[in-house]
Model the fold of this input.
Amino acid sequence: MRGLLFVITAPSGAGKTSLIDALLADDPQLKLSISYTTRAPRPGEANGREYHFVDGKRFLAMLEKGEFLESAEVHGNRYGTSEAVIRQALKRGDDVVLEIDWQGAQQVRRLLPCIGIFILPPAVAELERRMRARGQDSDAVIKRRLASAEEEISHAPEFDYAIINKDFEVAKQDLQAIIRVERLRKARAAAP
Amino acid sequence: MRGLLFVITAPSGAGKTSLIDALLADDPQLKLSISYTTRAPRPGEANGREYHFVDGKRFLAMLEKGEFLESAEVHGNRYGTSEAVIRQALKRGDDVVLEIDWQGAQQVRRLLPCIGIFILPPAVAELERRMRARGQDSDAVIKRRLASAEEEISHAPEFDYAIINKDFEVAKQDLQAIIRVERLRKARAAAP
Done:
């Protein structure tokens, strides 16, 4: 039976990546989509694991051939999701998680049936606290990220579900319940 | 915030009552609706716990005043759900479980927003095995119940969800996921 496509979007700092890692660890049927990017690998990142690392020329060629389901440019780097890879995974019966921003989610929604989940931070104030607690970023970077988070959050109503990551375990169980119920709906729709 | 109304329907032998008992034990926000009935209490049953036991005259008076959200006659006994009690519970914020047959579910659906869940036995053959394993009923009774189960099952498509009670724990987790996700949807709909 064809797999389900979950598009998960969240502002930076909402805890999306930790939540998705926890989901994937508990659920072997769920696969994370690996994006193509032109950004350089960071220490510890492996080609084909965090990203498919490609140069600008290769990326542009893929873009021109319409191979991306969605693509975006962030801080001068390009990111894209291969449509063929996603379609093959869904056809194999994998349930696929796509971790992209609201603009990517809009692009995907036009092309494929998918379930959109938006992860909200408890409040923008808490988001700021988390960004500062990381201690990695300057005030200017935090300000820019907060403005971008506010814009991102304004698109939450475009998604099928919105969950609040106030407590990690609760948010994880919310996500797992959504996935479980969407699988029930799928089995239901496929029943004779 | 207003509570949710879950209407749970299943053919006899699908394991509905054990599942609902397990749900209620784990979830204090979930309340089981207590029906009115004209049948006599069985040993161990208490008025107001399993049922509100009333005589035929009282039941008819309630029926004529339109006090029942749904009512049915089964083997000469009458059963009914008080509309006022359900509305008050929902207004208080309780999530209410109504354990009724498909005809009752149809009546409720016309009068109140609700989430319909149908519990299917793994197969009619398994249902027969379970009925026989109980060892309480004659062949004739089992045949009648099986015919009635088949009719009941034919109404499963009228419900929002259908789950199969093949494995008790799996079915229980399915039900819990549905309740969790419906609460997420409600919180979502109520958000500014």
User: Anything to note?
Assistant: The interface with chain A takes residues 161-163, 173-174, 176-178, 180-181, 184-185, 188, 191 of chain B (CB under 8 Å). DSSP finds seven helices and nine strands in chain B. The longest helix of chain B spans residues 168-190.
